[in-house]
Design brief:
Layout (H helix, E strand, L loop, with lengths): L2 H14 L7 H48 L34 E5 L6 E5 H6 L1 E3 L6 E3 L24
Antiparallel strand pairs: 1-2, 3-4
Helix pairs in contact: 1-2
């Protein structure tokens, strides 16, 4: 039995008991039952609204999932750069990645003088040097992958080759 049916049952009991509407107690009891009936109808309306909203949220969730699958689908991307930080959109026939394909990642560098951990990006590393923001120690970076002829991910796409 739902809440509306329960209130209807109470209302039927009150009518069957011939509660006197002229007494204080009778007025109070009948007013409480009428209020319960209003509350029950409001709850029923809210439950219907929640069900509709829940259906809409489920539909939106499915649509967002489809959009995410389309957006983040990696099936068409090449596997040439799985081991490096290249985020290229080249197809399987294209063996070269451009410098713009790299993400701006942060790298942790520990200052040898003060031991503070510093986070640097590719641009800072390319400059080759900086001062520690904590102690002022001059730091130099040598961020090479090894031989200039080899790619960092061993895929022969030259995506990690340093420009000279």
């Amino acid at each position: 039995m739902n809440i509306t049916e329960k209130v209807s049952y109470l209302k039927g009991l009150a009518e069957g008991l011939d509660i006197d509407k002229n007494t204080k107690e009778g007025k109070l009891l009948l007013a409480v039952i009428d209020t319960l009936e209003d509350v029950a109808f409001s709850i029923e309306d809210m439950e219907e609204n929640v069900d509709e909203i829940s259906e809409q949220v489920d539909l939106l969730d499915e649509e967002v999932e489809m959009i995410e699958e389309d957006l983040y689908e990696d099936d068409d991307d090449c596997d040439c750069c799985d081991e490096c930080d290249c985020d290229c959109d080249c197809d399987e026939d294209d063996d070269e990645c451009s410098e713009d394909d790299f993400d701006d990642e942060l790298y942790e560098v520990k200052c040898p003088a003060c031991g503070d951990t510093i986070y640097v990006d590719d641009g800072m590393i390319e400059e080759g040097e900086m001062d520690c923001p904590n102690c002022g120690e001059h730091l130099e970076f040598d961020f090479s992958y090894g031989d200039d002829d080899e790619c960092c991910c061993d895929c022969d796409c030259d995506c990690c080759e340093d420009e000279e």
